[in-house]
């Protein structure tokens, strides 16, 4: 009798996805138990070193890979963890090594918060100089004062069941498994999405209601916590904490290795740790000074930085291609169709209603959602905006057009809070937005999209829209909005989505946030003319369907005509005309300024 496969429920799929990391961790722990029994004693000691480096690289992958910041003091955080463990050991604190290890990670996390404060204002090389300077200062201090108990020879005792190297290796495997699980689930959550969003675009993060400061600080704190745990594991491995284990040159080499290996990927962090231990060990066996290992890491790191491709990406790509070449029975977790095969194009997924040259009747409108009064903005002697007046009623789609350089993008930046020096008033539902940051305005319901791509490719479609929405969403709600806007399936990686489709995903994410008003800055960029018209049908239906108002900034007059019944025209930073679509587009001044003299003939 042939059994018929039954489709899995969404609840079963979620449980499977939740259980999979634990199953991988269980397999890794079982492999660790086997290695502890099979490896010779010296290799067990080296394996402990691999785990210590893997925990440090996991943390470094968060701050440097996921959050995109240059931090060159990871082993300084490890030194903090080692200091706490040795200090508690000297003080005879209760709880034993495992509790001391956790305390060292927490203290290092607090130090990471403090170190992360300069990252709120510093970026790139400047942040690298600050963190490297911190590492150098701590190194000098450690050489002078030493770790607690070091001069007296006070060794740190391992927990009773883990007294020898083989059993301590098992403890380290358990710690690594716990750290990997924690990193996995944090990366899948709001913190992880915030890190990747900040790394790709701080403006995009703020416009989505995310806190750039919180994302950076949580990245530093999480990274430092893992660094502190690795430092505590070192103390348990050697018994004493020595300054030579936490030098700035090692922090620098570890950062380069993290970039080269792609340590933001958990498996690649472990792979990088294997290289961290194996390369110097091989050099020693070949009679080459071990310091040459830093040169090897440096060369590979330069290659990764200049090419934009790290070793982890190369290995992952090769594995994906290999698995893609094999016929595999589809499973529920892999059942999401690819972008090219299953995701409807913008024109294919358009609503079934016939295209209309003019907007359909607008829903009933009440008060003004957005009011802009006497808005002016200057850059030095250049007056970008001058006395702009603009209003968007409840449930309306108002168009904002104008020639290049008219001030449209500046106006959107001022309304959304990215240019706070402007004069005039911006009100949302009658409440002044003066003094409110872009993040705060977004959380109050004033959302915007960008002309440039602000959608982080490191996320999936589902993870991105959940982050942008900033509220709990049912899978059905996400699927409905994605389908309405013709977006790829939820599990599609944004790195595999073209620029035009990513703009649609950006719009869908902000619509899922249920804003009061959405400022769409050229949302049709990257789409064909037919796709423009299909998008117009969606935008025309969106206010009534999702209960929001929109301000559409566009160059494509076909899109504006199809969607907006009210239009405002900017020219040289001033409102040239504003009112019903037919009246504005027939205005000779608008024809001259926006469409050119030939259009008036």
Q: Explain this structure to me?
A:
This protein is elongated. The relative contact order is 0.10. The chain starts with 9 loop residues before the first helix and ends in a 6-residue tail after the last helix. Helices cover 56% and strands 10% of the residues. α19 packs parallel to α20 (557-563). The longest helix has 29 residues, at 10-38. The chain has 601 residues and is of the alpha/beta class. Mean pLDDT is 85; it is low at 1-6, 327-365 and 597-601.
Radius of gyration, in Å, reads: 28 Å
Q: State the strand order across the main sheet.
A: 6-7-8-3-9-10
Number of β-strand runs: 10
Task: Kindly state the percentage of residues in helix.
Answer: 55-70%
Q: Count of DSSP helices?
A: 22
How much of the sequence lies in strands comes to: 5-15%
Which features does this protein show?
alpha/beta; six-stranded mixed β-sheet; disordered C terminus; elongated
Can you describe this structure in just a few lines?
It contains 22 helices and ten strands. α17 packs across α18.
List the helices and strands and how they pair.
Layout (H helix, E strand, L loop, with lengths): L9 H29 L2 H26 L7 H18 L4 H21 L7 H22 L19 H24 L1 H11 L1 H6 L4 H27 L9 H14 L4 H20 L6 H16 L3 H14 L43 E12 L2 E12 L3 E5 L6 H8 L7 E6 L2 E2 L5 H7 L1 E3 L12 H9 L5 H10 L14 H14 L4 E5 L7 H18 L2 E5 L3 H7 L2 E6 L2 E7 H5 L2 H8 L6
Parallel strand pairs: 3-8, 3-9, 6-7, 7-8
Antiparallel strand pairs: 1-2, 1-4, 4-5, 9-10
Helix pairs in contact: 1-6, 2-6, 2-7, 2-9, 2-10, 2-11, 3-4, 3-9, 4-9, 6-7, 6-9, 7-9, 10-11, 10-12, 16-18, 17-18, 19-20
